[in-house]
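Title: [Solved] GHMP kinase N-terminal domain-containing protein 3D structure

Original question kept below for reference.
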Amino acid sequence: MREVTAVCPGSCGELLQGWVGDSQKLVSYGIDRFSRVSVRTGEPSEKPNPKVSEAVKKTVQYLGISEEQLKHMTIFVQSDLPIAKGMASSTADIAAACQAVAAYFGKQLSRDEILAICLAIERTDSILFPSLTLFEQKAGSLQEISGWCPDFYVVVLEPEETLETEAFHSQKTEALFFQQRERFCEVYRLYTEAIQERNIQKLGTAALQSALLNQEILPKPFFSEVVELSRTYRLLGVNVAHSGSVIGLMIDQQEQIPEVLKAVQTAPLRKWYTKVNVHQSCYQGVQLA
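Solution (posted by the thread starter after getting help):
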């Protein structure tokens, strides 16, 4: 029996997201929390989620393989990523499914080929890139690859609250991002300087400034308390899921993590953010296991 598996990291929201040029752009970073999609020979035992099913169908169509072949293979999705919280679970599932299906048939898709399939299904995060990348998430019309892979930790604050990305991106929210375009220019400038200087402190500042702007669009409960905690312990910054519900406390010194976790556990915000996990930045994109 033949079996192949592909793995793709998720994210903790975005470092920044806002209006640049003629549309919204974002910069995501991967974390060491993954979606794994396996394809094996055998009659389908259960149907995967609709987005994975669509990714599988589009992949075989792209490869010129008969859809009849799908009747003789089973798709398994094992994900550590929560759904609809802004952790790129859909992008990770879709990308891993594309590469797993291609590998099952002895093929390998390029990043751009996978991105094209992802974008044909939904808005897509920039976690597939091997470094921080400014990305136009709706059509992929801009890919500003930085070549920088800053290494840092993130304490992910995850509530029970969920929000579907596509439901969030209404005409109203698009208009709100557009209205912030002049202020977001400063965020983008800081990000660009951070990239040029390889300055992780400036990167954290840019992330916090983007998160502050996002409070006007999608407010996070206890946000000011999270920011105060970040400042108290002199962390890199705070980043958020701009169309989701998670918050990240960005940390560059591993030895800071225990005291930050202790502070989080005893703070009132813990009642809202019921799950707290520590992860590390990850830029591996989608890979075969």
